[in-house]
């Protein structure tokens, strides 16, 4: 399900950018380019996987899978009507996974022994020090005010009034921090294409690049989901919930 969401999110992003630039965007494959992302995915998977002369063999092949695994583990947190109220430390779990995920990206950049990837790894360490302290402080504020680590309790707390109206400043600051976490423009220091070519993933191709690409867009979807749950209440079940999530995704795309 998440892979399908990623495929269509990339299509929506390209359509948005085409609309802003007064052009059509992808429209060749199927009706209005509906299956363009499927075509691109097949093309990427059919590419040759390059073998480097000097690289850290195990870390090079392990780190994309580790990155994908960590991002996938985050979706366990999203509450639904089919889940029981048993995960009392879900926000603490979220912070731990986000902290560990930095190391997977650092491993991806360091393992290929490329100077561009190595510089990107140094940047991710500096960025981690910069934003994780403020991220932790905002989470602590939420813990103290809501008196719970559980997303289920936070949803119940918003039955009559959304947290957005109570914690407006925290909401905007967390949105900016999540943009940094996702390495989106204007915080794309990790993937500075003008000076680092493609950044940490410059030496990856074929299926390994696909894994890194999917992980990046899965994190965008997850951040939209978690902002919706934290500040706009409700399970991910009703139609307006999906409209709110689509609104957050559109904001992230438009910022680019």
Automatic annotation (TrEMBL):
Compartment(s): Mitochondrion inner membrane
Broad class of where this protein is predominantly found: mitochondrion
Purpose: Core subunit of the mitochondrial membrane respiratory chain NADH dehydrogenase (Complex I) that is believed to belong to the minimal assembly required for catalysis. Complex I functions in the transfer of electrons from NADH to the respiratory chain. The immediate electron acceptor for the enzyme is believed to be ubiquinone.
GO CC, any one term: mitochondrial inner membrane
TM region positions: 58-82, 88-110, 131-155, 161-180, 208-231, 237-255
GO MF annotation list: NADH dehydrogenase (ubiquinone) activity; NADH dehydrogenase activity
Keywords assigned by UniProt, alphabetized: Membrane, Mitochondrion, Mitochondrion inner membrane, NAD, Transmembrane, Transmembrane helix, Transport, Ubiquinone
Gene (UniProt): nad1
Membrane topology: Multi-pass membrane protein
Metal-binding listed as a keyword: no
InterPro entries hit by this protein: NADH_UbQ_OxRdtase_su1/FPO, NADH_UbQ_OxRdtase_su1_CS
PROSITE patterns from the UniProt entry: COMPLEX1_ND1_1 (PS00667)
Protein name (database record): NADH-ubiquinone oxidoreductase chain 1
Family per similarity comment: Belongs to the complex I subunit 1 family.
Enzyme Commission identifier(s): 7.1.1.2
Known catalytic reactions: a ubiquinone + NADH + 5 H(+)(in) = a ubiquinol + NAD(+) + 4 H(+)(out)
Domain of life: Eukaryota
Keyword Transmembrane among UniProt keywords: yes
